[in-house]
Structures are given as structure tokens and as C-alpha cells.
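Figure 2 data, in text form.
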Amino acid sequence: MVNYLTHITSIVPRLPPAIDGVGDYALNLARQLRKNFNIQTHFIVGNPTWTGAAEIDGFPVSQVSVGVAGCRHRSPDALLTLLSSDRSSSILLHYVGYGYAQRGCPIWLVDGLQRWKSLFPKRSLLTMFHEVYASGLPWTSSFWLSPLQKNLAARLAQMSDRCITSKQLYAEIIANISRGKHHQIPFLPVFSNIGEPDKVLPLSERQQRLVVFGGVANRARVYRESQAVLEYVCQRLNIQQIWDIGTPTGVNLSSITKVPILEIGQQSAEKVSKILADSVAAFSDYNPDFLAKSTIFASYCAHRLLPINTKGSASVVDGIEPGKHYWVPNPQGNELGNHMEMQAIADNAYSWYKTHRLSITVKTFAELLNN
């Protein structure tokens, strides 16, 4: 039997009440680590503009920020001071460059961890790479800063005792930049941040309702750029109502489609879960090659409804196949058949999700933290 750790330190960009997918992921993971393995988490928030409680759900929260003449800034010394206060726990870093620095180059974070590792070489660092580094188009800031971002990611990979990520492509990149330290990087698509219902109804027993859920930018893009596709979907699926969930987009939704759109705003995770569990379909406009790292797509799959995305990948990516795990509408075609085909896609998405649901993901993290 594995003798599991009793506590860890988890570094995150932000936590609730901030709207942040990585923070939600980290908090849900911490809850499950405590529930399943009795591992307590101390959070360190790396964004100095974050405002929140000193304790969330029983987890103590510290913040890397130093006040100088009313100004807050981050430094390697500030991070090292926090990390040195606990000389026994392992560290779980949730890494996304832009979460810790405006231009995606958190030198302070990597330098601070490097100093900590030098002082405490026997303590363990597990890095969850939510992102690795940006590339960007020529003449953009991400293009010019890509070498520095890559260098920082490489330093992290090389100093980390273990790494994990959410995409196969990222796993291959991390293995490459680690210079031989890591050969097999486990990758697990993200889980649903709004829960996983124990009972999921077949589509025939649900409301003829379509949900548009997620961040403001994505939902606004759906309404501004995919009106014709949205109309087609509603007609094809006999949708009676569209429910828009999240911070208002500012788009005049009354003129988008003939189907009524109800803006219900931000809701609790429990409320969103109940809505998805009783809806027949959900719509999104994501890069299809990155669906595995979308907590919104994960939520759709976890609730066994029909996931719809405006674009489809050219191949199977991270085990996700267009037409099998999500529907790509085509107003010029008649590609979605009867109700049985809809249910088959919903079932396939649900089965794919169960391979990395929260209980499986947390078991992998616990094993890596104790390896």
C-alpha cells in the first residue's frame, strides 16, 4: 500500500472568486485529493491583483505580492519566502505562462522555484503544464517572446521531478525540452469544473434546449460569427429555447435567431450542472485541436448531451474525433441523421470523458506526487 502524503503546496495563478479555468481545476483537484487520499493543500496565488479570502473550502491561501509604496509586484524572493515556510511538503505547480506574467514570461516564478530547489533538493516538484509556450504570428509579441517562453518552460521541465499535461502534443514538447529527463509524460484531458452527475438521462427525456456556456469571448464569437450555423442547429434539432450561461456578452441576442435566447448570467456550478443534465445539446466555437484542454467541452461530455462545435479537426486529436465525439454542423449538408445518431455521439463523448474523469485524474496526481 502506498503511504500517501498528508499535505502539498499548490501554486496557481488565481482562485475563485476570479473566473479562471486553471484556478477552478486546481481547486476541484484539491477537494478530491483531500476526499480520496486525505491530502491537504496550501494554495499560493501568483497573481498580485487577485483578491480573495485567506481560506477557501478549508484550504489556506497565501499570495505572492509585496507592497512597495502602494504597488504590488512579484519577485523570486517573495515566492521563496512563502515556499521556505514549509520545509516538508511537495509542490504542485499549475503552469500557464500568461497566468503569472502579462506577456507569458514569469521569470520571477521560475527563478524562485530554482532557488527553492537548490535549497531543498530532496523536496519534490510536480508541474502540470496547462500550457507550454506560445508561438504566435510574426510581428506579434508572442512571436518575439516565444524563445524566452520556451526557455522558461524548458527550465521548469528540467527542474521538475515529474510532469503532467492535458494534450499529447504538449507531452511530446515537454519530453523534448526536458533534454532527456522526462521520456513518458502522462497526459490527461481536463475534467469538468462544474461536476460529474451520477445519473445522466438519455436525450429523449430532456428539454429541447440548447446551451451556450463558457467565457465571454467564445460566446460572443458564437453569436457574431455563427448565426447561420446556430439557426441550422436549432431547426435540425427542433430546439425550443437557447440558454446563454455566463457573464453577459453585450451582444443583442434578440436578433440572432428565431428561437428565444434566455440570458441567465453567471450561475453556481451546481445550477449549471442541473441545466446541462436536462438539455439536449450544447454549442461552442473552439479550436477543435484543443478541445481536450477545454473545461467547457469536458462539461458537455460529462453531462452526456450532444456536444456541437462549429469547426472539426482534420484528424483524431487526443482521442477526440469529429462526427464521433462531437457534431460539426454543415448547413449545406444533411449529415446528422436520426435521434439514434445524436445519442450515439453523446454516448461516445461520455465514454471518452470517463477515461479521465476527476476520480481517475486525482489518482494519477496522487501517484505522481508520491512517486
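Caption note: Confidence is low (pLDDT under 50) at residues 67-71.
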